[in-house]
Q: What sequence folds into this?
């Protein structure tokens, strides 16, 4: 009887255990490398974002701060600073004609009237300097000192009644008014003045009293007899 010797050679299709470990190791290393690349990209994006944000913040704090405000104009022309709630641009502002005329008349009233109350007089004089340019400052100072209006308190009062205002040119207004004096030199006198205005952006301090930026840059006043110039 013939006996065949059975062979137990390794099966060539069977994988060596070390090969399986190598492949698993390669997969782990590849996965970690992919995570590292993704993380690097994320870090780079975040770094660019942070640098960009810092750049924008730096430019933002260097920008001039606009003073936002809302201004209400009354039907008779008076401008009232209502409050700071939105950006306000003087460059694009259209100042109503009524407001220009009201400002001129208010300047006349504050400059020429004389109250019996020194506090009211002081407030009138103080507000004048928020209504004029530097070119008119010296003249206003001279007019309130000659005579000294504060020295006249208690000796007489002067009330002003505006008779008319006419626009003489684009920037100049002619105003006629009556001054009624009680006390020393009592009586009624008629005056006429020419007032030139400029539209300028007011400072933060002046904006409370002169929100529309209407300034008197020059003026001349003369006493007239009744009916003169008519």
A:
């Amino acid at each position: 009887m013939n006996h065949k010797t059975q062979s137990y050679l390794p099966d060539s299709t069977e994988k060596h255990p070390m090969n399986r470990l190598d492949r698993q190791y390669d997969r782990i290393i590849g996965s970690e490398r992919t995570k590292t690349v993704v993380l690097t990209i994320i870090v780079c994006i975040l770094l660019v974002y942070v640098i960009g944000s810092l750049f924008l913040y730096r430019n933002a704090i260097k920008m001039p701060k606009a003073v936002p405000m809302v201004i209400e104009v009354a039907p008779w022309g008076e401008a009232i600073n209502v409050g700071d709630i939105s950006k306000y641009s003087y460059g694009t502002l259209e100042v109503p004609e009524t407001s220009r005329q009201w400002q001129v008349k208010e300047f006349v009233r504050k400059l020429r009237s004389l109250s019996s109350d020194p506090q009211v007089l002081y407030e009138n004089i103080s507000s004048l300097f928020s209504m004029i340019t530097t070119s008119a400052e010296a003249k206003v100072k001279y007019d309130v000192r000659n005579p000294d209006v504060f020295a006249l308190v208690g000796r007489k009062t002067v009330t002003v009644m505006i008779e008319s205002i006419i626009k003489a040119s684009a920037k100049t207004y002619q105003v006629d008014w009556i001054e009624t004096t009680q006390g020393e030199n009592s009586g009624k006198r008629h005056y006429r003045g020419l007032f030139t205005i400029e539209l300028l952006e007011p400072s933060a301090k002046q904006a409370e009293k002169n929100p529309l930026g209407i300034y008197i840059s020059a003026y001349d006043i003369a006493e007239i007899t009744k009916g003169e110039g008519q």
